[in-house]
Amino acid sequence: MEIGIRCFGDTYITPLAERLRFQEKNKYTFHCLKVDQQVVGYFSLFRFTPDLQDRLLCGTSIERDIRPEDVLPFSQHEPFDIYVDVIVVDPALPLHLRNLYAGLLIMYYTELILQLADDGYAIERIYAVTTTPEGANLTRRLGMQPMEQKSQLPERLAWACNFKQEGDQIYRKLKERLARYQSKVAHQDA
């Protein structure tokens, strides 16, 4: 099953050489969830120049066009925005597994963003673009709101979360909810 340039079921979600070039610029770029050595979901975090980020949000550039030289490192010395390239679970999986893996991805994503903030990374805003209802649902669960005036393409919806103003509280509440849910599931399995 192919999603954009990435394939589910393969060991690597992008070719290793390309993946390493992105990781050299930003170690937070690629995150995947594997089950039995198969990629079942993933997300990517980037920092771009404001111009490229705006082109991505408007749809005049697309994620497939991102090159390693476009990627900026995350910085603890200056405020920056994060662009979530994609957060997706393999659509070929049964619904109950997609829901489970989506919850795990959201939990990991939330913990990662909060850890960055706690480590002194001055995250201003978090942006994303979705092209499917499932992607929109996942992005909404990440505390983002649609930016309906932004995207110029009908199949793409731009999203934003002002992390500096409200995101930290939203993410901490989301983390608490996920922890309660995880505890509930653990007690049911016991």
**What is the radius of gyration computed over CA atoms, rounded to a whole number of angstroms?**
16 Å
Could you say what the CATH topology is called? Aminopeptidase
Q: Based on helices, strands and strand pairing, what is the structural class?
A: alpha+beta
What is the end-to-end distance? 35 Å
Question: Could you list some keywords that capture this structure?
Answer:
Aminopeptidase, two-stranded antiparallel ribbon, N-acetyltransferase domain-containing protein, six-stranded mixed β-sheet, 190 residues, 8 strands, disordered N terminus, single chain, alpha+beta
Describe this structure in words.
A six-stranded mixed sheet has the order 3-4-5-6-8-7. The protein has a two-stranded antiparallel ribbon with strand order 1-2. The chain has 190 residues and is α+β, with helices and mostly antiparallel strands. The chain has helices at residues 16-25, 50-58, 95-118, 133-141, 163-189; strands at residues 2-3, 6-7, 30-35, 38-46, 80-89, 123-130, 145-146, 157-161. Strand 5, helix 3 (95-118) and strand 6 (123-130) form a beta-alpha-beta unit. The protein has a single domain (2-189), classed as Gcn5-related N-acetyltransferase (GNAT) (Aminopeptidase, 3-Layer(aba) Sandwich), CATH 3.40.630. This is N-acetyltransferase domain-containing protein. It comes from Dictyobacter vulcani.
